[in-house]
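Justification of resources, computational component.

The compute hours requested in this renewal are based largely on the per-chain cost of generating structure records like the one below. Each record pairs the submitted sequence with a full structure-token output. That output is archived, and it is also reused by downstream analysis tasks.
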Amino acid sequence: MVYNRSKYILLPEPELTFSYVQPTYKSLSPLEGLKNWGPYDASIPGFILRPSNPIRIALISPSTKVHTIKGYLQSLMKENKLTKPHEYLRDYKGFKEIYGLNVDISDQLIITVNPKEIVHCKNGEHPEIAFLELIKSKLKMLSAKREQFDLIVLFITSEMKEFLEIKSENYSFDFHDQLKAYSAPSNLRLQLIREERIPKQADVNDTIRKLWWLSSAIYTKTGGIPYKLADISGKTAFIGLAYGIKHGNTANRIVLGSSQVFNERGEGIRFHLFPIENPLWEKIGVKRKNPYMNSEDARRLFTIIRQDYQTINGELPSRVVVHKSTPFKSEEIEGIVQALEGINNIELLTINQNTLHRAIQGEIRSGKQEVSNFPIKRGTVLPLDSYSFLLWTCGDLDGVDPTGRHFYQERRYIPEPIVVTRYLGKDCIETVAVDILKLTKMNWNNLQIYNRLPVTIEFAHSISDIVKQLESYSNVPKDFRYYI
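The structure output for this chain reads:
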């Protein structure tokens, strides 16, 4: 069905700030801002929580490929320039020049995996489990030297690919999630680098892109704050919810509610793990079921979140916004409202990325309505009814390409909107949509100008995938840097 809708809203693109003291150090692009002004936390006078200088990297690598990964990491310190202006990429000035810190890889912190160990894993009854245990043993060797490094880089080479993921109807294994579930409670921060993603020297743009992305990941995982949202809109807590369902029979299956708390600046990203012993279930179709919390579980979870926010910020938020990808049920709403008593502005929103809605940008040519040659604008909002709207978080974006041309991150695909449905709240549609648009720019684990989903939803699902691998939740750190 085709609709011709003219009553749409176009939101401005949120800006990022790169300085605590200079209000003019703002940009739409994280690359532009880091290139011009460096990371946000470098501008905070006397700030002692920045990454150490140098950032100390420990390395786990096949013995035959140590020189490859070490050389790639050392290339982070070198300058790489574009051969011609790029629509989004900027010259990579070198890690020290951008972040003000050096990177050090000590030979004493290099742990090798020899070829015989990999062959032994392949010959085991469960090769993927054998390989996981092998890498865990290497991590344990580094744990004894924990005070000597800030980050562990694990080099995943071609001969290791078969161990990384297995999926069948009754069995699922994800090496990344399993390893993060082990390393986080062990106080180890990891960066996995795959051999096939090391750029080829002949491809200048690919090299510069990957150096930017890796440098930001290293800086963030070791404690850095690359940028923040420029526009502050009051004392708001943003929370993302997701559920992780552990594989196994019904008696042993555990459903987890996981959430993150942000303040209005995009700071204070934390995770809460909340085992749910008696989940409720909503049947979707013939086989699928969505879990949700009963009233008491929701009340207890949001009481913890409320207390955590107050501890960090010294006061309660004046507004709470909750995102999740499945519907809010009446039991959940009741428990959340009880826990947040005294907070009068509560927004409960579902964000669904699976929709058949599409839109074509129109424009006036010679006095006639025509189809534009460019995609719909990012930030376009189209109301569907009193409770839901479409929001294009992907789309054409002005002010990014230095030559003034149109910029569309996804290039040739028709932009797909997300569907936002309100279950509780009173804010105007523009406020709700702007919040989501801002949070699509706050994934510090990559330097894209935006992501399709807000970081509330992205991180909630990432952490729920990881923590369902855990057997215990008592020693799990809340800092998001352990999981990205």
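The mean pLDDT is 88. Residues 145 and 296 are 44 Å apart (CA to CA).
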